[in-house]
Amino acid sequence: MSRIVWLASYPKSGNTWLRAFLANFENDGSAPANINNLALGGISSSRPLADDALGIECADLTHEEIDLYRPAFYRSMAARSAHTLLVKTHDAYTINSEGEPLFPSDVTKGVLYLIRNPLDVAVSFAYHRAEAFDETIARMGRESSAFADRPDRLHIQLRQRLLSWSGHVLSWLDQRALRLHVMRYEDMCLHPIKTFMGAVRFLGMDENPDRVRRAVDFSSFEKLRCQEQKFGFKESPHGTAAFFRNGRAAAWRDALTNSQAERVMSDHGEVMGRFGYLSRAGAAQ
Hints:
Elements: E1 4-9, H1 15-27, H2 47-54, H3 63-80, E2 85-89, E3 108-115, H4 118-129, H5 133-140, E4 146-147, E5 160-161, H6 165-173, E6 180-184, H7 185-190, H8 192-203, H9 209-218, H10 221-231, H11 258-274
Parallel strand pairs: 1-2, 1-3, 3-6
Antiparallel strand pairs: 4-5
Helix pairs in contact: 1-9, 2-3, 4-5, 6-11, 8-9
């Protein structure tokens, strides 16, 4: 049985960028990896993968019943693979109604957790969902927030409980069952070689500096955006002008009003301070 590395993050925190880097690092080719074929380990919420692995139709089950099966889904994924799987997830780290974590430790190698300033997340997430900033800020503050949870439609993905932004971060960072490595989006921007090398080291991969530099270059925001403009990006939501829209840190300063920024800091100030997103005076950095 192989093991799984969870590429975990709240939405719009750099997960696609990390997957692009890892695909380019694994390929070690002379040209950037195709963003529409980041062949790693898939996504933890894929309904088709779950149906196939479990041999059942998840459409016949409630969200709560599916959560009971999800640990078995991931054990099946690991059993079917001959190599380590790098699996994307936006789920918070939660337990099901039987008290079992959705992400079982017995088939987990580790977790790469990405965190981004929630002020920037609010802007990027709002554009991603084509909704108003105030609506997104409210969504980020609700412990009930989830993806694919509407009961009146069949989603291509399983329900993903996001919790609030703070709840999501703490669910992963404060759990003690899984080995964890944290990557700040801002460090990925400012110190990409050092930050991505840290991920390579955590994964036990080849720490060749030239290979890391090449993978960082091939997965740069400019190259990802160029590919999207030429070929489109299959993971981009319908109606979204561009998935790779900005990519800068601190872009929230040009987008949010003072009252909107204050709402985010009021909702998430404790966690923001813990990860360097607030000054000692409590102002956003």
